[in-house]
Design a protein that fits this description.
The protein has about 625 residues and is α/β, with parallel strands linked by helices. The longest helix has 20 residues.
């Protein structure tokens, strides 16, 4: 589109809105068209007209108050407190002068919104400011505070990003949309460093940019950003499927490398991604193995992130429209549906997904408007990857914990901070509350506490059952007194040396670093104790060696090498994984609607990726491919 088309859009908006709308300006802001009005009532009273405009123009339309009609911020704060019931328990109010929003943080955001949005509409009418309503986390979250601080203090920089982005997105494509291809830059026929480049004649979009935390050298740790197809200057957008480091851990490097464009993901993914990236940097520095980026690059990523809700459609380049859908893997995990050209081709990238309802999340989405090509994970795609049901896994875990506690031992569960930890917390809280296992302290160590705080701030992304429990029954399992936050080394030592039985959930999940390794060294030589693996153990990790049954393991201890004799019980319990097992993967393809023409498998060991692809082809007569890293596959 040209600047003239923006004039045409303004004429259409002015003609459709009431005569007293008094539209002062219309501009592109990222994927949206923003119209400024000198009559704030237009914002609240003509939602149907705005929705019709958006449908007709096929663009997101935002109506904002002109600067001239905004009430003074101090008077607005008084007005907000006058309009919003005290029961909402407002904890913070600040202003975004660029977006004309008053940002209201409250313990009960529903009361700020009001019945059918009446309270928030009242704020607009009386102040001109549009309320942006945020939840005060029941558990204080340092990361959410940091993210909000960065956004609050960089509104003008974000506005500049969106204006520049708007010009790029809304220009006409220079070339016909007669092809599309995907280049595999990491995570193909392997697990870790997931990354791929989607190219069309007019766009370059990076899907995930992860690291392999278990890699023995940098050559295998990071994506192949040096492929000839990839140019940081030509990159239009980055889409992050979810917050695990093997999908987002190398994103800050893009900003070190010179990228200044947007990242698209859900709000929980942005917050959890920030948490994990900062922790990754800290661990690397402690281990004297610094990463090729630092905290300022993480901050730049926050500033450049555009968050989307599930089902929200947005243009991200001249010829690609993105919609995120629930993936059921971890909080905020998303499948990316990309509408390429004017319906020329549709690509779905699943990221990691779980096609089963869990205590934490709803199952992955299977319905899309169209999906000619699907790129799907194959972590457990081998024919032998049959896992027990979630119910069976829970019973097996509780049986193991019961036996360990009865003999006076301690249970160590090395667990990923995001997803599995919260799933286990919900299970343990229920079993202990009902007296099905002894009530002992459940110690939460590493990033798990902060990740859990982020979960409590985003309950709308949790499963329906869990939301009902939190909102309607008034029982939030995450804030139970059973859980004890571990703060320092001395407290860890006290936990280990105490004769009392206990359960310890600690990162990292593969024993590749973090406090779980320290607990392991302290506990592994006592046969009363038990270590339970509940997640994938990557080849090369300490967790995989322990899982394989190694009885003598040399590890660093107080600056010296020491051989640890493994006497504790080692138990692997499948069924808690956030990945789909073989049956669920096959069932997912069967239920995809519409059925794709081509499926590419990724994120799995070579045998599993190939086995899943060949089985899908045999069973459903769908063309399949299993690319290797550095392959380019034409999908259109």
């Amino acid at each position: 589109m040209t600047s003239e088309s923006l004039d045409e859009i303004k004429k259409i908006i002015v003609s459709e809105l009431p005569k007293d709308a008094n539209v002062s300006k219309v501009e592109y802001e990222g994927p949206a068209v923003v119209a400024y009005t000198k009559n704030p009532q237009i914002i609240t009273e003509h939602g149907d007209t705005v929705r019709k405009l958006a449908k007709d123009l096929r663009k997101r339309i935002i109506i904002r108050s002109d600067k001239s009609v905004l009430v003074d911020p101090e008077k607005t704060i008084d007005k907000v407190h006058e309009i919003v019931p005290e029961g909402a328990e407002i904890t913070d109010i600040y202003f975004d002068t660029v977006t004309r929003e008053v940002v209201i943080t409250a313990k009960k955001p529903g009361l700020v919104i009001g019945k059918y949005g009446a309270t928030s509409r009242n704020i607009v009418k009386n102040t001109g400011w549009a309320p942006k309503i945020l939840r005060t986390p029941p558990i204080s979250s340092e990361i959410i505070g940091k993210v909000r601080h960065v956004l609050k203090n960089n509104t003008k920089e974000r506005k500049k990003l969106l204006l520049n982005l708007g010009q790029k997105i809304h220009q006409m494509g220079k070339h016909p949309n007669d092809w599309a291809r995907v280049t595999s830059m990491g995570g193909f026929k392997e697990v870790g460093r997931s990354s791929m480049l989607l190219q069309t004649p007019n766009s370059r979009v990076l899907l995930d940019c992860g690291v392999n935390v278990a890699a023995s050298d940098n050559k295998n740790a990071f994506p192949y950003l040096n492929v000839p197809e990839f140019s940081i200057e030509d990159l239009d957008a980055v889409i992050i499927s979810h917050a695990h480091l093997d999908h987002c851990g190398f994103v800050p490097y893009l900003y070190h490398y010179g990228y200044d464009g947007p990242i698209y993901c859900t709000t929980p993914t942005r917050d959890l991604m920030t948490l994990l990236q900062l922790d990754h940097i800290d661990i690397a520095q402690r281990e004297d193995n610094p990463l090729p980026f630092n905290r300022k690059h993480v901050q730049q990523a926050i500033k450049n992130t555009i968050t989307l809700d599930y089902g929200e459609v947005t243009d991200i380049s001249p010829d690609i429209r993105l919609t995120l859908h629930n993936a059921g893997h971890i909080l905020g995990s998303a499948m990316s549906h990309m509408h390429i050209g004017d319906g020329v081709h549709n690509l779905v990238y699943t990221g990691d997904f779980k096609y089963e309802r869990s205590r934490l999340l709803e199952p992955a989405t299977t319905r899309f408007p169209r999906s000619e090509t699907v790129i799907m994970e194959s972590t457990y795609g081998g024919r032998e990857d049959v896992q027990p049901s979630r119910n069976s896994a829970e019973k097996e875990m509780m049986k193991t914990i019961y036996k360990t506690l009865k003999r006076g031992g301690k249970v160590l569960v090395p667990v990923f901070a995001v997803g599995r930890a919260q799933e286990l917390m919900v299970v343990l809280e229920e079993y202990m509350r009902h007296g099905m296992i002894d009530e002992v302290p459940i110690y939460i160590d590493g990033m798990i506490w902060e990740a859990t705080a982020i979960h409590t701030a985003r309950p709308e992304y949790l499963s329906k059952d869990l939301r009902d429990q939190i909102f309607h029954m008034g029982r939030n399992p995450f804030i139970s007194d059973m859980f004890k936050k571990v703060q320092n080394h001395d407290q860890r030592k006290d936990i280990v040396e105490s004769p009392e039985p206990a359960i310890i959930l600690s990162t990292s999940g593969m024993l590749t670093g973090g406090n779980s390794v320290e607990y392991f060294k302290w506990l592994c030589e006592d046969e009363k104790n038990t270590l339970i693996f509940v997640g994938y153990q990557s080849e090369g990790s300490l967790g995989r060696r322990v899982q394989k049954g190694w009885k003598e393991i040399p590890l660093e201890d107080d600056g010296k090498k020491k051989v640890f004799n493994i006497k504790m019980q080692i138990k692997t319990i499948n069924g808690f994984s956030g990945h789909s097992n073989r049956r669920q993967l096959m069932d997912y393809v069967k239920r995809l609607n519409p059925r794709p023409d081509l499926i590419l498998t990724c994120h799995g060991d070579p045998y599993k990726a190939v086995d899943l692809a060949s089985s899908v082809h045999r069973s459903y007569k769908i063309d399949t491919k299993t690319p290797t890293n550095l392959d380019s596959v034409r999908i259109q």
